[in-house]
Amino acid sequence: MTTATTITDRNGLTAALRALKLPGMLATLDARLAHARAGELGHLEFLQVLCEDEISRRDSVSLAKRIRRARFEQQATLEGFDFAASPKLPAAAIRDLAALRWLHAGESVILYGPVGVGKSHIAQALGHLAIRHGAEVRFLKTSRALAHLAGGHAGRTWDKRLRELTRPAVLMPDDFAMRELTAAQADDLYELITERAGRSLILTSNRAPADWYPLLPNPVVAESLPDRLINTSHQAFMNGPSYRPSKHPGRVTLAGKEDTAQH
Beta strand 251-252 with 258-259: parallel, antiparallel or unpaired? Predict the structure, then answer.
């Protein structure tokens, strides 16, 4: 009789959890019931841990969705970056950026330096950190962002596309200031940066910010746009050997022998 009642009660609870769309509780129900039967959980504790299970599941699902929406090129983390392989990099400054004070202040980050030193890795690692702290993030090449906006002019979807790039708490234009911009591109970029006032950017560039001015054809935009980016940003100059070869576990050296050391 007790067993039948227990099964009936469990089935009823399972049905109720499904109806309330609480799969986190449902997934751990049997384990929590076992703890309760063993006397490890009282009534309130049983309910509390089930609620915590549901909160944990929702947090995990939300995190996974934000990571997918960010569209990162790689799942980069600061823990996975080998600072020892690039001793010239400003490791202390980068770790300070990991505290995310810039995010809470609505400020931006500019990582600039030669090709291949790990700028995009560090940028995406900072983006991951921001996501783990609840922020919406979007990563894309600067050229793709400008092409996306340009495509909205003919189809009258420009305002909608601008809102898409304005909405995230952190926008991450990669390979910024790669080449000279057309007047239309400069105008679109100016509108985007202006609309994002008070929201953070993470920019990576092969050029120093001081070298951005000549890339903009309109003198007024050329004076205003870089200043808007630079004056509210934390800048880190990244220099050193290329980080890309060091990510391979083994490579051929000049002597013709395979280098299998960790980098």
Answer: antiparallel
CB 112 within 8 A of CB 235: yes
Least confident of 8-12, 167-171, 259-263: 259-263
Report the alpha-carbon distance of residue 133 to residue 221 in Å, rounded: 34
CA-based nearest residue to 170, from 142, 205, 131, 204 = 131
CB 213 within 8 A of CB 234: no
Using CA atoms, how far apart are residues 113 and 107, in angstroms rounded to an integer?
A: 20
pLDDT at res. 250: 46
Q: Give helix 183-195 / helix 142-154 axis angle, nearest 10°.
A: 100
Domains assigned to the chain: 2-70 (no CATH), 83-246 (3.40.50.300)
Above 60 in pLDDT, residue 89? Answer: yes
Which helix (H) or strand (E) element contains residue 132?
A: helix 119-132
CB contact at 8 A, 193 and 69: no
Question: 214: which DSSP letter?
Answer: G
